[in-house]
Amino acid sequence: MTLFVFKTILAQVPAPAKDQTGGAILLLNGKAHLGNGKVIEKSAIAFQDGKLTLVADATLIRIDKAAFDTIITIEGKHVYPGFIAPNSTLGLVEIGAVRATKDFTEVGIMNPNVRSIIAYNTDSKITPTVRSNGILLAQITPRGGRISGTSSVVELEGWNWEDAVYKMDDGIHLNWPKRNTRRWGWDGPGDAKKNKKYQEELSRLIKLFDDARSYAVSTPIEMNLRFEAMRGLYDGTKNVYVHVNSANGILKAVGIIKDAGIKDIVIVGGEESYKVTGVLKEHNIPVMIRRIHSLPRRSYDDIDLPYKLPAILYEAGVLYCLENSGDMEAMGTRNLPFYAGTAIAYGLPPEEGVKSITLNTAKILGIDATVGSLEVGKDATLIVSTGDALDVMTNNIEQAFVRGKNIDLDNHQKALYRKFKEKYQVEK
């Protein structure tokens, strides 16, 4: 029994922090990247009861230190809004090779009524490792089928999913049919084959949208769970997230979904979105850019196209953000700030790189009124790094706050590092 308790204790993640109460906290003289494109070299950032009460240039204001319960001098350090990870399976998978720990896919093809939030596991050991790189919010997203289900936005903090949820059921995820299919093996991609069921799959989607719209504007005799979940697509309370990469697919999806009367479309993946920037800008359609630390899918593309894509969309005036879908995506989410750093190295202005994982993401998810930038009145969800948080060589998140709560940044990887460092420490 003693051994069992010992193992249980070792398996726990850091306990959730208590709400910020009492006096105000002031972070003084740090370099603040506000998330809206602006930088304050020597900042004064204060928060109380979980809300930002002061964001100013410390050299231009008089600071009454008696007004603050705690003053933390962060000279030479960097302050950012908490990073936001969209289109993530954090908390829905623990070990990719163990089926019992994966809870992001439901049986069936059309599942708009499947809600990822009720499967979200706040006790995941992956989440603290991601949080310690500055990611404090995530969009928890289902996978599989034609319509995977409904995502929700969570804070990476809390005892259970009810505590963690930040925006419930923000949108429905649709995997757009492919005109051509290709099998991938150990020796690389196989030959492309025409999808013989392409038109049939499009017809099924069009019928589903028509039926859902009719249901949404009527008073149905019987409740239909699928159509109930889709109501928000027609009144503007939910986004439809269309997972599609080809330019052809993007154009087809925009045309069909707009004709269906759906208001808010987000392209997820968008590897060829640079070919259709005019259409995206015309219809105000943002793009969640798939993990840019990847090779291009097509042999004729520039080898550095994934790195340049954020800068291309920025120059075209298309709203975009960065996401991390792909192999090992849950654990790999910790690399999100470094994707922004790579995009900066390939032409994106530095503060636009910060926006690509903060305010831009918040705008796309519809939470920018309260998070995504350091502005008075918004949530005190922010991080302090001893170096540039977008640089893999200098990222070192020293402090993190979620709505003013001081978050424990320890994790099991750090614990293992300390354990074996002590064991193999060479005496001098």
Annotated CATH architecture of the largest domain: Alpha-Beta Barrel
Could you describe the largest sheet, including whether it forms a barrel? 8 strands, mixed
CATH H level, superfamily name of the largest domain: Metal-dependent hydrolases
Shape: globular
Structure description:
By secondary structure, the protein is of the alpha/beta class. The protein has 2 domains: 18-81 and 392-407, Urease, subunit C, domain 1 (Roll); 85-177 and 223-371, Alpha-Beta Barrel (TIM Barrel), CATH 3.20.20. The protein is 28% helix and 25% strand. It has 13 helices and 18 strands. The protein has helices at residues 2-11, 126-131, 161-164, 198-216, 225-235, 247-259, 277-282, 305-316, 329-332, 336-345, 350-355, 359-365, 412-423; strands at 25-33, 39-48, 51-57, 70-73, 78-81, 83-88, 135-140, 147-155, 165-175, 180-185, 188-194, 239-244, 265-269, 287-289, 320-322, 382-385, 397-402, 405-406. The strands form 3 sheets. Strands 1, 2, 3, 4, 5, 16, 17 and 18 form an 8-stranded mixed beta sheet that branches. Strands 6-7-8-9-12-13-14-15 form an 8-stranded mixed beta sheet, sandwiched between helices.
